[in-house]
Amino acid sequence: MMPKPRDWAALGGRLSAWIPPDGAFDPAGAWSLRYARHALIPELDGTPGRGALSGELLIEQNPAQDVIRLRATETVTTGFSTPTTVAEMSCAKDALLTPLRWALTIRWQTSAPGTVNSGELDQERSGRVEGHDLVFKATKEHRRPAPERWTAFWTLFAAVQRLPFENRSVLTFDLLEDLELFKGGHRLAYIGPQAVTLGEKTLSLHVFEQTGHGVLPWRWWLDDRHRVLLAAGGRRAYLLGTSVKGGAE
Amino acid sequence: MNPLHATRRTFLKAGGAGGIGLILTAQHAPAVAEKRSPNLLFMHLDQHYWEAVSAFGCQHVRTPAIDRLAAQGTSFSLSYSANPVCCPARACWYTGRASSENGVVMNDQWPVAPELPDLGQWLSTRGYDSVYAGKWHVTGRNFTQSFRVLTPGSGVGEVTDGSVSRAAEGFLRSRKRSDKPFFLNLGFLQPHDCCYWVMEHVGGTPLTRLGSPPAELPPLPPNHGHDPSEPAPVSRRRNKREGDGWSAEHWRWYLWNYYRMVEMADAEVGRVLDALEDAGLSEDTLVLLTSDHGDGLARHGLTSKMFLYDEAARVPFIAAFPGRVKEGVRDTSHLVSGLDVAPTLCDFAGIDGLPKARGLSLRPLLEGRADCPWREFLVSDTFRTGRMVRTPEFKYIAYQGDPVTQLFDMRNDPGELKNLAADAAKADVVRDLAGRLASWEKTLDILPLKEPAVKKAGKRRRGTQG
């Protein structure tokens, strides 16, 4: 039996009850995919850790006439604090699903009373493309030239699903992580098919790899219906949930 | 020597123990009481070697945020961790005392002396809102008793550093003019995740990437090799599994990944700086940025820390405060220690310093006083048995009980490749530096080293607290 690729092995026992989704999937249609967010921490001797849960991510896509509407809801659990970011994005119908207009709501929950005042850390942010500029609004409005090609991290979940499984599937772009942090020089390219054996089942998957400044390489693992099952970076991974049949809601 | 009774000259010769800090604080206290104390923003990265910044000439990394901070303020090239491993370095920042005095001589097992106040407590009782987000890691002290904690860290930078900067962003944007001045501490973990990369590739495990290597893979450093006769505590580190069985490609990939992790940290720093400006607080806030220690970075065939070569011991140190700190200055001559953090913050805050703080306030340097007297050497520890004396010209390293000492000519041999300790022509230098070390040790109130008070957990994931 082939050893599991690192990204899967690093999830440790998290895969024992994991069932790959089945059923139809249309990357261009309306869908929602819910991912568990995992921390990939190896043991001291280098063996994979337990893939500790560190939150979740829900991506919802709704195509409209002129734009693709995407909503990302990401919750990060850290000790006693849990920030949830909801990003509403109207995206261009291009290969990168470039956001044209967006609004972020960030809400914090804490289970340690007295450390944070109610609402103290909450934020509303927004942004838009205006001509050749990006306009960001938090307390004040800021403007900066838009990179030639750019997209957000959350939009990649949708964009990569639209790419054909062939060697010429390459995206080059600057990454606007959290719709706030610019990380330049990214390249996302098709690597090829790869078999992953989980228990008694072998999945035929397709892998894209993304490299660029400010991130460790991300690998995007898609099933043959172009659904992202796993996105795994250096220490962070998003594994498609199985609570709902098909992994979609 | 009792620092409270020595002359200024002897304090400077003694590496700038507490007394000189008090003298300088008094010299530079404002003539008229300031209407409002400044805000203090102390950001620390984890395992960031000083040179891994694009503004400092590193071609393999892009750090626009740290570059911006350096351009807005003063950065120090000769900046050293007081003890290059996580807990000890942090305990030195927050207590202002050397490791052998505060008790935290190694990670996790020796707690901080309970009677020593920390900066959070000190500033809270002097009118500040002391606030913390991220990694703390000062053994034996619960940071919720010293700070208002916005969000704790975790052991993984890639997982939670974003929450740290997001919390800071929310905190800064919600400040009102009428609020108390803040002392905001942000403990970012990156690029410390490089420890996990090492663990994943222990014994030469095949590389985890799938695609082609990037064209810009960094080369092996010129000092990748090592001296086989170096002190045993260093060779023991090398003989651990870190880097064992690695090919040149492993090392180069390690470096490439390390620089990406530095960029992750830089992006989070940028988010905080943007929020500070957006909230209109930049003009009222002293910003300090440093790291607890560096990383081996393939030099001397090492990764990680807990040794005294520059890669582990030398860290970035940048201060910015519009109108108060000289802008765009890169100070390459003054020796700066992690012990200087506490005196500097207290000095700018206009309050008395932590008791017997061993460092110096950087304020006179930051304000551009050319005539400012300064230390002639500094000392860093590793565990409590290894000590380094650094002057602008030389570095002398001695480990208790080890017959091998090291002397490096740092101006002509910055890679620390040629040990001159046995060179007869340098005997006077060795004698002088050993004497300085002995005199410095005499100034310390050394705590007796007991058996570890905090037992290590059985199979702890290394790096989660390191």
For this entry, give a set of tags.
heterodimer, A: 249 residues, mainly beta, 2 helices, globular, disordered C terminus, B: Alkaline Phosphatase, subunit A, 8-stranded mixed sheet
Mind explaining what this structure looks like?
- The complex is a heterodimer of chains A (249) and B (466).
- Chain A is built from two helices and 15 strands.
- Chain A starts with 5 loop residues before the first helix and ends in a 9-residue tail after the last strand.
- The radius of gyration of chain A is 18 Å and the shape is globular.
- In chain A, strands 8-7-6-5-4-3-2-1-15-14-13-12-11-10-9 form a 15-stranded mixed β-sheet, with helices on one face.
- Chain A is mainly β and 249 residues long.
- In chain A, helix 2 links the parallel strand 9 (150-152) and strand 10.
- Mean pLDDT of chain A is 93; it is low at 244-249.
- Chain B has 466 residues and is of the alpha/beta class.
- Chain B has one domain (37-370): Alkaline Phosphatase, subunit A (3-Layer(aba) Sandwich).
- An eight-stranded mixed β-sheet of chain B has the order 5-4-6-1-7-8-2-9, with helices on both faces. Chain B has a four-stranded antiparallel β-sheet with strand order 11-12-13-14, with helices on one face.
- In chain B, helix 3 crosses helix 10 and helix 7 packs parallel to helix 10 (248-278).
- The longest helix of chain B is centred in the middle third of the chain and has 31 residues, at 248-278.
- The radius of gyration of chain B is 21 Å and the shape is globular.
- At the A-B interface, strand 4, strand 5, strand 11 and strand 12 of A face strand 5, helix 7, helix 8 and helix 10 of B.
